[in-house]
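Mods, move this if it's the wrong board.
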Amino acid sequence: IYQFIAQLIRERAGVILISSELPECLALGDQIFVFHAGRIAGQLIQAEATKDLILNLAFGRGLDKKGEVAS
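Not the wrong board. Structure tokens:
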């Protein structure tokens, strides 16, 4: 499946991948949306995404009191 997804990406097709597997998200995603409590907690580009940042956002850490990504 990973080879097929990678081929689609090379062909510039839009791919939406829903996964809880961080290595999978980091390897295949050029944009990563992280959800917490049913809302988008962060939108990251691959170059800035790390496992720690994704986990912090997914568990609500790194969010301000309004539930938005703290700057």
